[in-house]
């Protein structure tokens, strides 16, 4: 569309300028006239030149295909960003892959149909360059399929673990991966890093997840009915041990310290790894974190494997410092010979006020049957918003259990302790739980 407007106005060529948001990300797109897409610094220079002369001139010179440019890889402006609003205890995104100016076949002719412009009789070629997370997904799916073909017994979680724990965190020049503004990208942009297919074929260790663990995790987020829809089977969350998001056996580690957290208390995170590499093997841990803000202890001090598929568990104890007020990111590395199994770590000290806190409770009917209880929240206005789900608890039997969730949305100006209560009311019965 831009090119058509320029061409119809008599333009011989077009320069597409980036704004600050697009940064250094440029796209290869078909145009109806010669065009060049330039990054933000070059665009700023062009704007300055245009404002400095009444008769600006320019030319587009084709420099051919240039290989081995740096920085590469880097994060595009459109790449998905974390943290997860729903589940801050699970670091997102997981991984990055090729997704900018990817060349592939195309079902239609691309570019202008005029042979004098396209150089091809009947229109442009049937190939295209496309950007997007969907393009990156195709690469990751193909890599996952190759891993599955080599290890047909591996679960999806083990395959994801292999991809994440072997990812590259530096670019081709050995420097940290940069974002679209050429600033060091954090884990909320890169996830575990840029996928390395060759390394993913031999990860050494794998963080596996039993399908039942997902149900326990989902029961910490949704009602039994909602989890049943996801699991495609009947699920009663009151009979299932809830697994907090930070305790799911994920290849990455994310810990969020709310503002009210007692800084003298640590958070303990547990993980289990499976040996899918050599035997015997001994892995030793290395914590790579910026100095200050947190202290992380790993226990045990080594993991010894004498069999294939043998599992070993370890714990991370995260001690927050008194002055921690920001996001701190680093990694846990398990090292054994040529193997380095890397898990990104993200520690957040200030609760993002756009994120709710989710609390689940289960109550047992020891009163009348049948009975229907409705909730009422007594809290001072402002500061917080509290939602209760479901909107009623219906009991048809004695000792029947029902679960509910309380979602707490913090206000933007909340700086004090706020207290109130949740009441479940049925007739003359009022079950009151204090809230702080």
Automatic annotation (TrEMBL):
The keyword Signal applies. It comes from the Eukaryota. GO terms for molecular function: serine-type endopeptidase activity. It comes from Eragrostis curvula. Residues 65-174 form the Peptidase S8/S53 domain. Residues 248-347 form the Subtilisin-like protease fibronectin type-III domain. Pfam families: fn3_6, Peptidase_S8. This is Subtilisin-like protease fibronectin type-III domain-containing protein. GO terms for biological process: proteolysis. InterPro entries: Peptidase_S8/S53_dom, Peptidase_S8/S53_dom_sf, SBT, Subtilisin-like_FN3. PROSITE patterns: SUBTILASE (PS51892). Keywords: Signal. Belongs to the peptidase S8 family.
């Amino acid at each position: 569309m831009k090119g058509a407007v320029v061409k119809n106005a008599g333009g011989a060529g077009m320069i597409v300028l980036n704004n600050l948001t697009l940064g250094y990300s440029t796209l290869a797109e078909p145009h109806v006239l010669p065009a060049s897409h330039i990054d933000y610094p070059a665009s700023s220079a062009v704007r300055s030149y245009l404002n400095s002369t009444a008769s600006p001139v320019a030319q587009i010179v084709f420099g051919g295909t240039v290989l081995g440019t740096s920085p590469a890889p880097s994060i595009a402006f459109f790449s998905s960003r974390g943290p997860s609003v729903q589940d801050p205890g699970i670091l997102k995104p997981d991984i990055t892959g090729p997704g900018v100016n990817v060349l592939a076949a195309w079902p239609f002719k691309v570019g202008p149909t005029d042979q004098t412009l396209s150089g091809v009789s009947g229109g442009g070629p049937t190939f295209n360059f496309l950007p997007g997370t969907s393009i990156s997904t195709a690469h990751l799916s193909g890599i996952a399929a190759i891993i599955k073909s080599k290890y047909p017994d591996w679960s999806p979680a083990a395959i994801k673990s292999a991809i994440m724990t072997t990812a590259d965190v530096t670019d081709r020049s050995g420097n940290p991966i940069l974002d679209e503004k050429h600033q060091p990208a954090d884990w909320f942009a890169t996830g575990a890093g840029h996928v390395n297919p060759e390394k993913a074929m031999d990860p050494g260790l794998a963080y596996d997840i039993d399908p039942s663990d997902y149900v326990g995790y989902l029961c910490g987020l949704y009602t039994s009915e909602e989890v049943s829809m996801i699991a495609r089977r009947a699920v009663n969350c009151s009979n299932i041990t809830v697994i907090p998001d930070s305790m799911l056996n994920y290849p990455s580690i994310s810990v969020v310290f709310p503002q009210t957290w007692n800084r003298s208390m640590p958070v303990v995170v547990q993980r289990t790894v499976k040996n899918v590499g050599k035997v015997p093997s001994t892995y030793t841990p290395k914590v790579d974190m910026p100095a200050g803000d947190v202290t992380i202890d790993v226990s045990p001090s080594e993991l010894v494997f004498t069999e294939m598929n043998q599992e070993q568990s370890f714990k991370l104890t995260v001690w927050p410092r008194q002055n921690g007020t920001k996001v701190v990111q680093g990694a846990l590395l398990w090292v054994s010979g040529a193997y380095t199994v890397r898990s990104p770590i993200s520690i957040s000290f200030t609760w993002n006020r756009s994120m709710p806190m989710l609390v689940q409770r289960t109550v047992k009917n020891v009163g009348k049957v049948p009975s229907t209880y409705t909730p009422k929240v007594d809290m001072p206005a402002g500061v917080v918003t509290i939602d209760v789900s479901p909107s009623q608890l219906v009991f048809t039997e004695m000792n029947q259990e029902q679960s509910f969730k309380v979602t707490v949305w913090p206000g933007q100006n909340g700086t004090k302790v706020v207290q109130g209560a949740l009441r479940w009311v049925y007739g003359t019965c009022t079950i009151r739980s204090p809230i702080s």
